[in-house]
C-alpha cells in the first residue's frame, strides 16, 4: 500500500520510489489523515493546470501548510483565479518583461564569474552556500531594488522559510516570524520608493497600471515576497542539483565540458529529472471522478510535479538522466495561466552560472558524498550542503 506524506522529512533524500508507486498503483491517491488527493501522472497533472472546465481553484493557496481562504494576502496572485489573477499578473508581467530579463545577462555573467573566481581560489568549498546561493540572491535583489547591504538578510529569511528540517505540516513560529520580517521589510521598501522612485521592479510595480487599476501596497509587498523567495530558493537548488548530477554521471559530464552537450540541455534535464518543485495544490470547486475515484468538492488536490516529470508515459525511460533527451513536455515550471513567471529568468541564470563554471573549472571536480544533504520545504526540495573540490581549468 502506498503512503505519501509530503511533510515527511525522510522523503527529502529520495522521494522517487514513492512517486513511482503513486503513479503506478494509485494515480488518484487519498491521504485520509491530511485529507488531500494526489495526482502524479503527467497527463493528469497537465490537465488540471489547463483546467478547461474551471474545476480547480488556487484561492486557498498552493501548499498544504498555507491552505487558507485568504492565502492571497501572503501569496499574491499565485493564490488567485481568473479574472483577478489575469489582471494582477498582467500588471506584474509588464514590469517583468522579457526585455528586462534579457538585459540582465551580462550582469549575471559578471556576478557568476566573480563568485566562481573566489570559489576556485579556495579550491574546496560548499557549492551551495559558497557559490550557488550567491548569484540568484544578487540578481533578484538588483531586479527588485534591494540594496546590497540588505541581501544577506533577504537570503537568511528566505532560507528560514524554505530550508527547514521541521517538516511538521504546520507553519512553525520561526517560519511565521521570517515571513513577517520579510513582509515588514518590503513594506518599508515600498514606502521609500513612493517617496523616491527608482529604476527598479519595486517602483515599476507601484506605478504599473492596467485599465486604470493599480496594485495596493499590500499586494506589492506580497508580490515582492513571492518573487524574493521563489526567485532565490528554486534557482539555487536547480544549480546545486545540476552540479551533483553531472558529478554522478562522468560520461555526460565529459560531453558537457567538451561542448557536445549544451549547458542549457544540462539545466533543462536537471529540471525534469530532479527539479526543485515537488508539488503545487488546487481546490476543487465541484466534485469529479478520475480513474474511478470520486474527489469531492472543496478537496485539496496535490499536483505532484516531480512525480509527473518521471512518468514513462511522457518521457521514455524517465528514470534515466540524459540531457540529450526531448524535455519539451517538462512540467517543472507548471502550465497554463499560472506558468512560472520567472521561468526565463531561472533558465537564464542557471545556464549562465553553469556555463561560467564549465569554462573556469576542470572537468574532474569532486564532491564529498558524506557532506551531501537534502532539505527544503515540503513543496521545494534541493541540496543545502554540497562540499566540492575544484581545480582551475588549464
Ligand atoms: C509559479 C517553479 C523560479 C516566480 C511557479 C510554478 C512553478 C514554478 C511550478 C507554478 C505554481 C502553480 O501553478 O501553482 C519554479 C522553478 C523555478 C522557479 C522550478 C527555478 C528553477 C522562479 C523565479 C521567479 C519565479 C526565478 C521570479 C523571480 C514565480 C511566480 C509564480 C511562479 C511569480 C506565480 C505565477 C502565477 O501564479 O501566475 N514557479 N519557479 N519563479 N513562479 Fe516560479
Automatic annotation (TrEMBL):
Classification lineage: Bacteria, Bacillati, Actinomycetota, Actinomycetes, Streptosporangiales
Coiled coil, from the record: none
Keyword Nuclease: no
Signal peptide: none
BP GO terms, sorted: cholesterol catabolic process
Family membership noted in the UniProt record: Belongs to the cytochrome P450 family.
Protein name per its UniProtKB record: Cytochrome P450
Annotated keywords: Heme, Iron, Metal-binding, Monooxygenase, Oxidoreductase
GO terms assigned for molecular function: cholest-4-en-3-one 26-monooxygenase activity; heme binding; iron ion binding; steroid hydroxylase activity
Keyword Oxidoreductase carried by entry: yes
Pfam families on file: p450
